[in-house]
Amino acid sequence: MNKTTIALVAISILTISVSCRTSKSRLNNISDKEMLSIIQGNNETSATNNFTKNLPPPFNSSGSYRLTALDVIDVEVFQEPELSKKFKVSPQGTINYPLLGAVSVTNLTVMEAEAKITKLLGENYLVDPRVNVIVSSTASRRVNIFGEVKKPGTFSISPDEPFTLLATLSKAGGFTDIADIKKVRIVRRKLGEEEIIKINVNDVINGKKGIKDIPLENGDIITVPETWL
User: Are residues 129 and 167 in the same domain?
Assistant: First the structure.
């Protein structure tokens, strides 16, 4: 073995020694969680795909639904079973979430609720948390009001609110000055068929003919026409 070969062998041994010491130092500084990720390798990607695949579809794919009191939601945090639970939104609009305590979710969309919980968990507890929120059931009943009311639109009525015609019209701000309140209609769909209920709101307000406030059903459409002079 000549001097050049001996020198090359010595350099190789030195490089291997330095590499081993460096790798050992790096391993000593890796956390258990990072080590688990290294061991799993591409399995983490596979697990993530399976997690997403197995989730049920969102309550409202358009993302327009806003959470309200007494809704029931599922919060799933990837690889965190103790943080993945079902919650009922309190009358105050909060859920009592592990580690975080009371978290206000009322009037948030599903995506906004996910972003809020992700942010709160990421600030102090988890690194890059992956959160999914799913609406299991909604306590809201919805009514659409069109025509001559001051605030037409879609209204959510929670179970602790009266679900009647006059109460719901009050949510719409009442009638405009040109509303024909004698010809209010409720359009109701049942089993694919449309039912139209004509109402003289004056009679309801005054209690004429024994008429009381009219109970509504989820999905009712209330129309208030204009008075024609």
Answer: no
